[in-house]
Structures
1.
Amino acid sequence: MAQQAAKRSDIIPKPKRGRRDDRDDDASAANKPYREPANLEEAVERLNQQRAVLAEKGLDAARPRYSDAELTEMAKRAETQGLGDRFIVRLTERRHAGDSDNIGPVDANGNAKYWTAPLKTVEPGDTDPRALASLLGKDNYDPNADYSVAIVDLEKSNLREEANTFVPTFNNMADFAKKELTDYDPKRIDEVMTQDYAKHYTAPREAMDRKGYDVHDSRQVKEFADAYFDETDARERFKARAAIESQLGANARFMGDGRTEYLGDGQTAGALETYTFDRKPRTYENLTGVQRLDAEPVNGD
């Protein structure tokens, strides 16, 4: 049984950010323009090359490839033009994949929803789970857990047949939620998928957890909302937002700008964030165009 995870600051050394022209680790992917791999084999080899750099230079070489401004521009472009990336990457704690050996957990309705990132934005992290956790904003990294990394070739994979992958900005998630959550007023969905409402969602959501309510149980959500809020509009907004969390996976940490939080120093964002909703989840054995790798910390840092 895995021991309780240590605090993030104790287990994920923060990569430091310095002027790139002063550095001696130019071999790192963080310092190289992205060149799309020709196939999965080349994508894996590129990660192997980066792993050798991390072994020599440490996690400082796993800092973000792109600046905050560059990631913001990527997210804005993807919001209007689509993702456009061929390769995406998912870091998974194996227990979250469930017994079905899927790329992501399957819900009661038979759907899988999971968060991913374009390879170009996480290549500096290799398959080191600490480095990837820092780039992806995963502050619940557990050094005692087993992780894997899945690389998906969206051009070749049968994953694309039933899966929808997009950059989850507020607008994109709202559009998707209105198609999937037909029991909820589209107006309410638009109201809660905003930066302003994100600030208002945190306090009642935390109170809900403290009082022992389950966000995945719509009856409990209603019971909590009725007791917590005085105004009907506030109740309805909260119920719509909780449904987006429970059914689509956008929890209270979802900030809706298409970027992940960087857990290192020197900038805010670590990578571009992508979201996949899969209506026909397949096991790895039945997936094509997907390579799963063991994710283990690199020695030497």
Note: The chain has two domains: 26-169+258-295, 181-248.
2.
Amino acid sequence: MVSTEAQLSYIVVERPEQIPPFDLVDENGEADEAVGVFLLELVACDKSPATVKTYVYALLGWFRFLHLRGKTWRQAETTDVRDYVLHLRSADNPYRHRRPDSSVPGSLNPRTGKATLAPGYKPATINHRLSVIKSFYTHLEQRYDDVPNPVPLRPRRQAHHNPLDPWVHTGRDPYRQREPKRTPRAIPQEMYDEAFRSLDHDRDRAILSLLVSSACRAQELLGMTLADVDWGRKCVRLICKGTRDEAWGH
């Protein structure tokens, strides 16, 4: 749980009318200039608004952690990154708070087989925050001579890899968490039939059928418009998350 002191030290302010559309503001109400320039670079590199938002909130957690240690981003050291990772490994994720009668974390839903999420931060979330912090300081190194990157990296020995030689596994970078491989899950046919029969609108049936047949993300489907439907060829267009490439499917 984030302490009240940490919550008051920095906040994210959304400003849809400006570029970038977010400011990381300190307790005096002043926006951090370095973060603003970093976010501006992300926008200029054609990063999606959702990506910019995840980056600024990842930096918010890092700035709050440093504040509790009496430091600013200029004073961060490798030991701070190590302790931040240890903190995330043991802390509760505030977005995972559940009712007292909720299922036990890790238990399986008897109908869907989906595991109930644990209250803490997933390894993928910790690794993402490390990537954001590393990118932030990599950007700062180009502007300031006295700000080293506190995120340690394993030396890259295969920068000039011969494509005819096999790749040699060098292991994870320091503090990177091991991410478990997830087993793909499929919805049973009888459960799909039950869900399909329970729908009373053709629009909802079309949404469910497209989700199952294309395996698209909910965000990709919800972002569709009438312009993404080719009535002549009887196919639809999905804008892929991340790359934003077009994918047509029948």
Note: The chain has a mean pLDDT of 84.
3.
Amino acid sequence: MARIIAVGEAGFHIRLEELKPLSAHPGGLILNTAVELSRMEHQVSMATEIGSDVLGHKIIDILKKEGVDTYSVELSLDGTTPTTLEFVDTKTDEIIQQLRYDNFENCTEGFDIIWPTIETGDTIIFGGFLSISMRVRKRLWQFLTYAKERKANLIYLPGYNPVRMMRVTKVMPLIFENLEIADIVITTTDHLQFIFGKTDTAKAYKDNLEFYVNDFFNIGDEVIDYHAHGGQHERIPRISSMKLPEALAWLIDNKILSKSTD
């Protein structure tokens, strides 16, 4: 059975109304997508870096409970598990402010994870801030290059967050490198706007993505748009009640992995 290897940030998110804690849970788009894919009975491994602290060990426990392999999760002594405070409007459940505490960004070394083995037909999901961090770039790029040589399928989720880095122009060369090595790119409309300044998926594909990848999906509020070479375009209804990790996992399971096994 082909495996899914998810490479991205992990941390702990605490939701608050003013200063009153509402909930606490592991965070990171790729991590939560990995959990959703495991619930769909895929064989999933997580590759990331967290602190060897109470929160880090809690994340390990939760991933294991969800059936996600944690062999490639590094418990680092050089940093603490990233923590994000999310202040929410309880009437709309929307996040109105985020505060992130992450001393990994100040480390000059690290990311000494033990990479999993790669077999032909495996799927690598990578992206987010980890994929544009110079601190981990060399080791990550070596892994992605090796996975490509092993004929794994590479899915890139840019997931750009302007709260982490306001000037996207500083990291565009790394984003384009990621696009070039990827087989499939998945964005949201917000990410598309942040990175390329466009919400029109057809224009974004033609102007910014078509040169690099054949298969492009964009997850909107109501529709998932698919674009490919030759003017192919499909509009896939999105179940509005699905949160983003659920929508990503559904898309990968139903429209990407199922296609690769046909």
Note: The chain has seven helices and 13 strands.
